[in-house]
Structures are given as C-alpha cells and as structure tokens.
Specification:
- The chain contains no helices and eleven strands.
- The mean pLDDT is 95.
C-alpha cells in the first residue's frame, strides 16, 4: 500500500488542522489505520487508530478530546482532525496501516509524513 499524507502546515496555538491520507495500490478496508507522529528529538508515537471492526477508535492521552480520526473506505482515505493545537503537537505526522484489522499499535506501511508546526 502506498500512503500519501496532506494537510500539514504552520498554525498558531489554539488553531486547527485536518490531515488526510490517500492510499493507492490496495484497498484499506481490511486494515486498522493509524496516525503516528515524531517530534524533534523524540521517538515515533502512535497517537490515534481506527479499526475496521465497528470503527472503534483509540487515542493517546496527549490528544484525546482534541483530535478525531475518521476513515472513508469508499475513498480509500483516513483523516485526522486536530483542534486546539499546542506547540507540543509540533511533529512530523505519519499515516500508517496496521498489521491487523483491530488496533494493535504495530505498523505495517508508512506514508512519507507531513510536517505540522504550531507556533505563534
């Protein structure tokens, strides 16, 4: 699966961004889909996942209540709506397919990443 993220950019604290990820080469409808991020000097962290079983969603504590993951299997896309952004959200964000249909935290395919910078 080839994954291509879009929607990153520079935003002020308190602002919002919507990331999108378009897949090609294979349908996403049998994968759990996730977003990871890597902040400067830190390891990659899984922040959100949506299974293909009843659309169950999982969020890291750092983004719960502010970020919303969604998927559209007809369009072969997964999105991440990010609200109330803070400088701590500055990172490269990656779209990921996971190895199972449920959220496991184990990545299979990665996109190239999109930079999100939160700064005044």
């Amino acid at each position: 699966v080839q994954l291509a993220e879009s929607g990153g950019g520079v935003v002020q604290p308190g602002g919002s961004l919507r990331l999108s990820c378009k897949a090609s080469g294979e349908n996403l409808d049998h994968y759990a889909l996730a977003w990871f991020r890597q902040a400067p000097g830190k390891e990659r962290l899984g922040i959100s996942c949506i299974s293909n079983v009843d659309g169950i969603t999982v969020y890291d504590d750092s983004v719960r209540g502010r970020f919303t993951i969604s998927r559209d299997d007809d369009k072969n896309t997964v999105s991440l709506q990010m609200n109330n952004l803070s400088p701590e959200d500055t990172a490269v964000y990656y779209c990921v397919t996971e190895v199972a249909a449920y959220c496991s935290g184990v990545a299979l395919d990665w996109g190239q990443g999109t930079q999100v910078t939160v700064s005044s």
